[in-house]
Amino acid sequence: MPQLFDLPRELRDLIYEEILASSAPLPTLKDTRYPFNWCPLKQPPRGLTDYDCVISFQEAPPTCASFLACNRQINVEMMHAIKREKQKGQMCALMDCVVNDQMHHFTWLAVPLVKTEKKDASKPMACKDTPMSKVISSWATRLFHAGTSHILGNNIFPAYSLHFTTVIERLRIDIRLFDSSPPISTLSDSHRNSTAWAICAALSHIFDNGPDLHTARRVDFIGEVVLNLVPQANVSNASPPQSPDNANDSLFVPETEATPTELIRNELVEVWNRIWAADDFPTSELRARYYRFLLEKINRVRICVNGKTFRTRELAAELERGRAEMRRIQMR
């Protein structure tokens, strides 16, 4: 049996690309019917008994970090493959969202690569109120955490996280709509924009817990979030429309009425305007105030329909420009 380095470089590159592009299988509607496989996501002002979005308990696919650490030659060749995939726009973490019966089921499909960087020690408040970080250096903290995590769990992880930041450069969430969801126009006000707020809940969960529920290694920043809206599935199985002679005139849908895909697409755009408009006053929306921290954690949000970009919104850059303008005004 030939070894890896006995193969031509072209074949090795194909192997690297396959490793980077590999993902878990898409969950089906049948998979969403087993409640014990899903964990409710925190959604203010909802409680654990009133939720409309859950995330799968299954472990996220591993990154290619162990493959990169095999030897120097594999590392060099793999980094070249990663660079090519990034230039093609193919390199991203992938999450699936099944929207069915007003429920949103999130599943990690692929996390090929995350970036871990050492925090800038010159930043103020970097190690405040953490005595361990003043005594144990970064390498000792990592060694201590690796050797005792099976005994102490993740209780000492906050000290480790003060030294390093975990960044996902690009995250794509495929939002798959199914026919069994009722028309949005018939929903009550409390259930409208539910898909947009469910996406915010999933992003909040990622920043708090990371891709893996078991290790709870949080993510500090996401460069770009791509919300790819996939139009309604199972269209071929939908019941045929009634003939005009047998239909009620009051039930005719005007041609100008937006489709469910367009309505949810507009919700995904509008939700960021609501978060931007939120402030600390009681008159603002509670959910918008709760998710306002996402503006600092995400650099850019791109809303797509079937892979085609509909709208792009800069978040962190706009927030920083606004803060810079406020500082400039205060200095007058």
Question: Which stretches are poorly predicted, pLDDT < 50 over at least 5 residues?
Answer: 122-160, 234-244, 246-253
Q: How many H/I helices?
A: 11
Order of helices and strands: HEEHHEEEHHHEHEHHHEEH
Q: In percent, how much strand structure appears in the residues? A: 15-25%
> C-alpha Rg, in Å?
23 Å
Structurally, how many domains make up the residues?
Answer: 2
Biggest sheet record: 9 strands, mixed
Question: What is the rounded distance between the termini?
Answer: 74 Å
Q: What is the arithmetic mean of pLDDT?
A: 75
Number of strands: 9
- Shape type: globular
Structural class, by secondary structure, is alpha/beta
Query: What share of residues is helical?
Result: 25-40%
Structural commentary:
It is a single chain. The protein has eleven helices and nine strands. The protein starts with 8 loop residues before the first helix and ends with a helix. The model is unreliable at 122-160, 234-244 and 246-253 (pLDDT under 50). The protein is globular. A hairpin with a 2-residue loop joins strand 3 and strand 4. Helix content is 35%, strand content 21%. The longest helix has 18 residues, at 260-277. It folds into two domains: 24-119 and 165-235 and 257-330, no CATH class; 122-162, no CATH class. It is of the alpha/beta class.
